[in-house]
Amino acid sequence: MRESISIVLSGEAGQGLQTVEEFLVETLTQETYVFSSKEVMSRVRGGNNSVEIRVSNQPIQALRYTIDVLFLFNDHALERLLPRLTPQTIIYGEAPFLKSVPTQYKTKEVAFLDLGKQAGNRLYENTAMFGYIAGMIGASIDNAKAIITKRFNKRGEDIVTGNLKAFDLGYDLGRQDPDRPKELKPTHFSPKKALTGNDVLSMGAVAGGVNYVAAYPMSPGTTLMTLLEDKSRDFEILVEQAEDEIAALNMVLGAWYAGARALTTTSGGGFALMTEAVSLSGITETPAVIHVAQRPGPATGLPTRTEQADLNLVLYAGHGEFPRMIFAPGRLEDGVEVMSRAFYMADKYQIPVFVLSDQYWLESMSQVDALDFNPKYLESFVVETKRDYQRYAFDKSGISPRGVPGYGLGYVKVDSDEHDEAGGITESFTMRVSMQDKRLHKFDLMKKDIMEPLISGSSKHENLVLSWGSTYGVIEEALDTHPEWDLTHLHFIQVYPLPESLKDIISKAKNIQVIENNATGQFANLIQMTYGVKVNQRILKYNGEPYHIDELIAKMEATHE
After folding, report:
1. Which of 35, 117, 247, 351 has its CA 20 to 30 A from that of 400?
2. In angstroms, rounded to a whole number, what is the distance separating the alpha carbons of residues 142 and 144?
3. Pick the CATH number of 4-176 from 3.40.920.10, 3.40.50.150, 3.40.50.2000, 3.40.50.300
4. What span, in angstroms and rounded, lies between the C-alpha atoms of 306 and 301?
5. At 557, which helix (H) or strand (E)?
6. Separation of alpha carbons 508 and 462, rounded Å
7. Which CATH class is domain 196-378?
8. pLDDT attached to residue 412
């Protein structure tokens, strides 16, 4: 585990946790390595939320379970976090907030409310707390003040001046704290951009040419819709809130039929309602891009927590047999690549393509140097139709050329029943076999477009660790800091279909370990089924939390005893 400082803020919704988090992350990302994520209760009021900001002098993409410094925003912000405290944890807050802290923990009273009042308004108390934390860890005053000025500039000079004064008051106190943690500053560092998974998925959608979004709100998938709506005028995207999830995916299919590049976003419960439309995409060979943001089920489950338990749901969704692709971003930059690639693959192969993320990956803030946008993914495969156009023609390419109404002279007829080349309903057994073979032949055609996994660690390939999605960062840190384990990490960004090129590596491995956030090892089962191997070890977590780096290292060490 890399040396780091773990700072946790705990309070109710509306108390300003997100503001302090954003100020800190935006400041620190200019000068050091930082990773941040949220833990949100599923109640609008009354539930206590928390934010963790982990700071290090080396790259990090994971949280730590144990807490170094904890800031309480109210008198009931501690109970949920007690298991994460250590004898070295220091707890800060107003005097009334510290009364419930057990006597074995060190506390420090800081009157942030009074600091806000000294600066001119009690509302500046969160800026004073930001200043205190910045002072404790030695963050740049210039960077912090530039961010405060930018945030409040539109609200007038007095508001900017007051917040800057509150910051100064807090910063001075933080610098004087005798228990402030050791400063962790990299020897060489270039300023980076801190983004969330939702941010990069929205960028990837734009890079993939999205121009229509239909969705029904369901956390944690809703933010992607709202981010694209916010940019709808800049990029000419029509965003529509459908009456329900069933309508949303059918609207997406209608938009692709008309020539748009369309997207829907939802979570597991909402996607369950879409499955008939997924099958409709399969038989009509209509492209679709579907973002499924995973959270724990069954049913409502833990609606604001994280899990990787919907792989089977999207893998087998829809009655009948038809091809699909499934992507799951792990690194932050993967979000741009897989979302834009999803539009390209959906268009090229006329299939439903899924982007499978989770609450933790979507809402964490991480750093990236630069993002690449591949113009190739904007390529359209729509053809101009001739008068004798047949939508389901048996083309030598193996894929029927896709026309859209109004582009050319042809009539574009599609049907959800089995059909002939012109799109007319048929009950011919011979035609049924020919059409189904044509659709399933896409699996063979898709082989040249399957993404290879990221491979790191030992070059021996004897002991493998396999992962997918949001577990990438925490596993990489565990392996980087424990080279003596001699493990090779294969991280899959495309989780279906899986590449045939890995068969030799996987089949010859002495030991295969799969790490994932679900109870049954869904990806491990897919690996076994695809490659005909036995997964020797499974490390599984399904309590609604992501893997913490100290927790995962302990679990992996236990497998090496």
Report:
1. 247
2. 5
3. 3.40.920.10
4. 10
5. helix 549-558
6. 7
7. alpha beta
8. 98
